[in-house]
Amino acid sequence: MQAALLLGTGGPEMLEVRDDVPVPRPDRGDVLVRVSACGVNNTDINTRVGWYSRSVTAATSGGGFAEADLDDVGWGREGLAYPRIQGADVAGVVAAIGEDADHNLLGRRVLVDPWLRDRRNPSDRELAGYLGSERDGGFAQYCAVPSENVYPVSTGMTDAELASFACSWSTAEHMLQRVDLSAGETIAVPGASGGVGSALVQLAKLRGAGVVAVAGTAKLERVLELGADSAIARETDNPVAAAVEANGGLFDAVADIVGGVDFGGWLEALNRGGRYVASGAIAGPIVDLDLRTLYLRDLQLHGATVYEPKVFADLVGCIERAQVRPVVGGTFPLEQIHNAQEAFGSKDHVGSIVITIPG
Predict the structure, then answer these.
(1) Average pLDDT, whole number, for the chain?
(2) What is the pLDDT of residues 143-171, one digit of tens each?
(3) Which residues contact 158 (CB under 8 A, 6 or more apart)?
(4) Strand ranges (DSSP E) for the chain?
(5) What's the rounded Cα separation, in Å, for the pair 204 and 318?
(6) H or E segment to which residue 295 belongs
(7) Which residues have a Cβ under 8 Å from the Cβ of 349 and sit 6 or more positions away?
């Protein structure tokens, strides 16, 4: 089959598209998915460049980090085995069934939950793996996954549109569930134009919350079209202060994938008892925290990575009820994966970048 192989840590040159990769065979309880499309996400880039390593302190980048420690380059702070097929945002059709898997899945159009949980203890987050990291993923014509990770979905969306959901939208849904966002509350969304950010805007509005989004000047109109009540230019001298002003006061929650120098400002922008959740740090992972702000204002800080299966099931329900709309910022065939990741890294798009897989 055709597949993009990650050969190690480094720049785009470490990805090689080949046509002679063996088709995986589904093990007991697994299914084989014929991949139609697969979204690109930050985890793909961060893993390739070694950004997850504790030795890296800079913002995310498309080039490899020479200082990355190969023993902790994975999302779970462990080493990875190469070659590896990345790609967590899989949409496709079940093409084969392994022993003990549900035969009713054969031929069904599905979305794949990328979190790989231990079958004996699925609630233990320490035992979780990620599709495209601990197991070969969807930048290939076929992908074998646990049968419990595939969700049949009935929708008129295209394959590329469907592939824009899995990672970005489940991350966003998880973040909002972590802070228990409710109707009538207000939330700030830094980085609102990317895959996760654009999903946060829609899912927060679906909950009946007020949303102030922060994005690049050229993307503000698109972000407002997604439902944000106000949109603040990232280039503003003090985007946090501008967001508070647009909101008419402090926020109940902040959902952040940006991090960097504005981290402390976002904490100051929260009401007493407010909630901050992070699931990324594209502007830099090392931030200043004034503990007095944290404890004197009774704030809650949440990380959001490994979620319970209910999060993905809730997302699929939103898709089938047509409560959300996909935001695809560009599509590329698999042989142009270098171009796709370059486009992803340029951040000129709104929404998700998706790889289409040949039949």
Answers:
(1) 95
(2) 999 999 999 999 999 999 999 999 999 99
(3) none
(4) 3-6, 15-18, 30-40, 89-97, 109-112, 115-116, 129-130, 142-146, 150-152, 186-190, 210-215, 230-233, 251-256, 270-278, 300-303, 328-333, 352-356
(5) 13
(6) helix 291-296
(7) 193, 329, 330, 343
pLDDT of residue 63: 85
With CA atoms as reference, report the closest residue to 275 among 175, 172, 173.
175
* Size of the chain in residues: 359
Residue 326: cis peptide before it, omega within 30 degrees of 0: no
Q: What is the mean predicted confidence (pLDDT) over 18-27? A: 97
Residue 98 neighbours by CB under 8 Å, 6+ apart: 25, 26, 27, 28, 29, 30, 31, 32, 144, 147
**Other residues' Cβ atoms within 10 Å of the Cβ of residue 156:** 7
Q: What is the C-alpha to C-alpha distance for residues 264 and 251, in angstroms, rounded to an integer?
A: 14
Nearest in space to 9 (alpha carbons), one of 60, 45, 57, 59: 45
Dist CA 343 CA 349 (whole Å): 8
Average pLDDT over residues 112-134: 95
CA distances from 213 to 227, 241, 256 (A): 10, 13, 11
Q: Which residues in 185-199 are b (16+ Cβ under 10 Å) and which e?
A: bbbbbbbbbbbbbbb
Helix/strand/coil for 34:
strand
- List of residues 6+ apart from 214 with CB closer than 8 A: 188, 189, 190, 191, 192, 231, 232, 233, 234, 239, 243
pLDDT band at residue 30 under the 50/70/90 scheme: very high
Indicate the DSSP class of residue 135.
B
- How many Cβ atoms are within 10 Å of 78's Cβ, its own excluded? 13
Phi and psi torsions of 229, nearest 5°:
-75, -35
pLDDT at 296: 97
